[in-house]
Amino acid sequence: MQKKTLWTVSIVLGAAAFVAALYYNTMSYSAYRVEVCMEFNGQVNCRTALGASEEIALRAAVDNACATISSGMTDSMACSSKQPRSIKWLKGK
Predict the structure, then answer these.
(1) In this predicted model, what pLDDT tens digit does every residue of 23-82 receive, in sequence order?
(2) Measured CA distances, 76 to 62, 66, 81, 90 (Å)
(3) Residue 71 phi, psi dihedral angles, 5° rounding
(4) How much is the CA Rg of the chain, to the nearest whole Å?
């Protein structure tokens, strides 16, 4: 009976450690939050993204905003290379 209890405690502690590590990693990636609006081919789209750095958050928001207003790889690259219509830092700056 004692082996079963030790096994259960080990599983609970392992699960708690996993959840704590997952929470820590998630929070470290959300240090910066930005909303970016992109304009391409007469359409405007705004997206919010999180990142561990300003550059990562900004790139993710630009790529996400361009994804719905561009068609295909060429348009997507053209949209992503344009200056954002607006940038609004929401957290971490």
Answers:
(1) 666 665 578 999 999 999 999 999 999 988 999 999 999 999 999 999 999 999 999 999
(2) 10, 6, 9, 25
(3) -130, 115
(4) 21
Residue 84 CA to chain centroid, in angstroms? 18
Q: Please state, in angstroms and rounded to a whole number, the distance separating the CA atoms of residues 40 and 60.
A: 17
pTM beyond 0.85: the answer is no
Structure tokens at 55: 């550059």
Each residue of 22-49: b (16+ CB within 10 Å) or e? eeeeeeeeebbbbbbbbbbeeeebebeb
Q: If you ran DSSP here, which 8-state letter would residue 42 be given?
A: T
Per-residue pLDDT tens over the stretch 2-25: 777 877 877 777 777 777 666 666
